[in-house]
Design goal:
Blueprint (H helix, E strand, L loop, with lengths): L1 E7 L19 E2 L2 E2 L1 H10 L4 E6 L3 H8 L2 E2 L2 E7 L5 H10 L6 E6 L2 E3 L3 H10 L4 E8 L7 E5 L4 E6 L8 E11 H4 L10 H5 L7 E6 L3 E3 L3 H11 L4
Parallel strand pairs: 1-4, 1-7, 4-6, 9-13
Antiparallel strand pairs: 2-3, 5-6, 7-12, 8-14, 9-12, 10-11
Amino acid sequence: MFETVILAGGLGKRLREQVPDLPKPLAPVSSRPFISLLFDQLIRAHISKVTLAIGYMSEKVIDTFGYSYKGLAIDYVTEDELLGTGGAIVNALKGREYKQALILNGDSFCNISLDQFKKWHFDYQNTASMVLTYQEERARYGGVECDLSTNKITSFIEKKIGLSAGYINAGIYLFSKEFIEKFPLMVPLSLENQVLPYQLTSLYGWVTKSEFIDIGTADSYANASSYLKKFL
């Protein structure tokens, strides 16, 4: 049993000036909502259903896509309060029967094959896996250190000016139900800051140099359309 969740409930405060009347997942990139790029990526991986964890301007997301996109069934879980990325995962999966969950950040895109990532995760019987991609500039993202001989993640590096080239968190995860059930019972709960750094014994990185873009800031959003044309 397998569930897929896209985290799309953030307030998107840093994009308000550029996109004042839309939630971040609907920010237009090359004349289409950004999150539709993730939908297409799921479809290419033969995934037939996704749950969107939504909050801010949730009704606009539902009105835009309804309950299906190119045959991909869409379900919605709405946050009544800010839960954080970890809390949103727990809330989206509450009461569902599943053994593994594929989680994607709704404001970033990494041009990988989700099929290959899933196969690697299951072949190695990992409890928790995350995609890492190489970046020359890591100051805005922070870094992730990984033992490339074992794929074990060894540490997370905070965002800071001058951070050298290396791997970053690409915002794509595969977690077992057992791993998610270990999340701290707190709200809001940050997956990146309050869960992953404390679960290094269970955490493995799928390493890639695939293209990565996010729309988390005004500058990155401004660059997204030209950068993503090759994927459209």
